[in-house]
Give the backbone structure.
Amino acid sequence: AKRVIVKVGTSSLVYSTGAMNLKAIDDLAFVLSDLVHKGYEVALVSSGAMGAGLSKFGLDKRPKEIAMQQAVASVGQMELMNIYNARFSSYNQVIGQVLLTQDVFEYPESRKNVTNTFEMLFKEKIIPIINENDTVSVDELDHETKFGDNDKLAALVTNLTDADLLIMLSDIDGFYSDNPLTNKRAKLISHVPKITDEIMKQAGGSGSRFGTGGMLSKLECAKLLLNNEKGMILTSGVEPRVLFDVVAGEEIGTFFGK
Ligand code: ADP
C-alpha cells in the first residue's frame, strides 16, 4: 500500500473569523476515508486545536500566558477531535488520536512504541490524527521556534513511519519565487529538487492570523525529507478534494523531491 501523511494547517481548518471551517473538515474526512477504502495508508497531522479552543473560550487571539494557551489547546483538542470523529464516522472510518512531543523521536524506547502504534493503526485501517501534545510541550505554541505549527512534527512522522509522501495543505497553493502576499509578481515554482540557500532566501514568514509556521518552516521540513530520499508536496487546503489528484500523481502545487 502507498503510505501518505497529510498535514493540514490551522488556516485551512479555522475561518479568519475564528469559527471552525466545517466544510473543509468534512471534505478532508471524505477524501482521507475514501483513500483508505482504496487501500492507501493515511495519517493526518492536524493543527487547529488552538483555533478551536479560542472560539470555545470566545477569544479572538492567543492569550499571552503560556499556561493559558495550553489550557485553551487542551479544550480545543477535544473540540477538534469531536468534529473529526463525527465527520469520519459518517464515512465509516475509524480514527485514533496520537499526541506526540519531539523528545519521543529521540528516545529509542518511546520511538519504538510510537512506531508500533502507527503500524498497528495502519494495519487496522484506522487513520491516526496526530498533534503535538501541547500540555507537555510548548514548541508548537512558541512563536520563536524555527519549526512551527506542526510542520516539523509532520516531517518527523513521515520519516518515522517511512511514508512515501508528505502532503502539506497550507493557505498558499505552493512555493513561490517570493512571498506572494508582498510581491504580486512572484511565480509558482512547481518542482524543487534541492533546498539551496537561494531557495531559502525566497521564503518569508507566516501569512495567516492563526498560522505560525510560515514558508521557512516548510522548507526546513522539505530539507529533512529530501535528506531521507522522501518527497513533499505543498498545496492549498482550500479544496481538500485536490488530494485525489495529488495522490494520482498530477502536477499540483510544489513538489519537493527528486
Ligand atoms: P499554514 O499554516 O496554512 O500552512 P503558513 O502561514 O505557515 O500557512 O505558511 C504559508 C504562508 O507563507 C503563505 O500564506 C505566504 O504568505 C507565506 N510565504 C512566505 N514566503 C513564501 C513563498 N516564497 N512562497 C509561498 N508562500 C510564502
